[in-house]
Design a protein that fits this description.
This protein has 255 residues and is α/β, with parallel strands linked by helices. The chain is built from eight helices and twelve strands. Helix 5 packs antiparallel against helix 6 and helix 7 runs antiparallel to helix 8.
């Protein structure tokens, strides 16, 4: 059937979008009832945009049908297409409060964080040639996004209606300052990059407070996620996770 490979359950589909990045593809989740909502968008590049349109078409939809964009965090592979979709649809853009500057003032924040990285990495003793290599990657990364017009911030505990699903925002800083998971009444956890199958996400450098979010904060978020007792985790990349407790144990063992 049309769209069957994308369908996770009635009213929910997973879109698999290319990123041009080593991580591979990114997951975007589409709640197909009103308000038609996309959770994360993929980066701003022709491959991701074309694949988004193709998968929407398979479901009988276009980008103009999207009424709401909800983001898990402010990294460009998750929000790069938000403004493109907003311009084409008039959709509301809802973003985690702690990452709002990364999306709304995209270029300025990116430049500020890049300079902060250079200063702290050199101060910490990183080889200059390594620092320059990372900065070259940053220069490429910035091309995969643009500032988006944000409608509202999402705070811990907020309830957001996505299609017929009500999502409760759970602030899980670590991968970024604002990283937020969303727990549905059905026991699904939309985890962004807080939980990734067979991977441990990096703890972010450079939070909204101009300090690294840090490993201790990320570990605290892992414990918080485990206490939610989600039945199924839909991550930002790769396949779904079934056993959150085992994943958290695995992650903590790496640290």
């Amino acid at each position: 059937p049309i769209g069957a490979r994308m369908r996770l359950r009635e009213g929910l589909c997973r879109l698999d979008l290319p990123t041009r990045l080593p991580i591979g593809t990114v997951n975007a989740y589409l709640f197909t009832d009103e308000p038609l909502t996309i959770l994360d968008t993929g980066p701003k590049c022709p491959e991701a945009y074309d694949e988004l349109r193709r998968e929407l078409k398979e479901l009988g939809l276009t980008t103009a049908d999207i009424e709401q964009i909800v983001l898990t965090h402010g990294h460009v592979d998750h929000h790069g297409l938000a403004e493109t979709i907003r311009r084409e649809s008039g959709a509301k853009v809802l973003v985690p409060e702690g990452d709002r500057p990364m999306i709304e003032a995209y270029k300025e924040t990116f430049a500020e964080r890049t300079q902060m990285y250079r200063t702290e990495a050199l101060r910490g003793g990183a080889p200059p040639e390594t620092v320059e290599l990372v900065l070259e990657f940053f220069e490429y990364l910035v091309t995969l996004g643009e500032p988006a017009k944000v409608s509202a911030s999402i705070r811990d505990g907020d309830a957001i209606r996505a299609g017929r699903t009500v999502l409760k925002a759970v602030h899980t800083p670590g991968h970024s300052s604002g990283s937020t998971c969303y727990l549905s009444a059905e026991g699904e956890l939309f985890a962004g990059d807080t939980l990734l199958k067979d991977m441990t996400p990096n703890a972010a450098f450079g939070g909204a407070d101009r300090e690294s979010v840090g490993l201790a904060v990320f570990i605290g978020s892992l414990h918080r996620v485990r206490a939610l007792h989600a039945e199924r985790v839909h991550p930002g990349h790769r396949a779904a996770l079934e056993d959150v407790h085992a994943y958290v144990r695995f992650s903590l063992d790496q640290y």
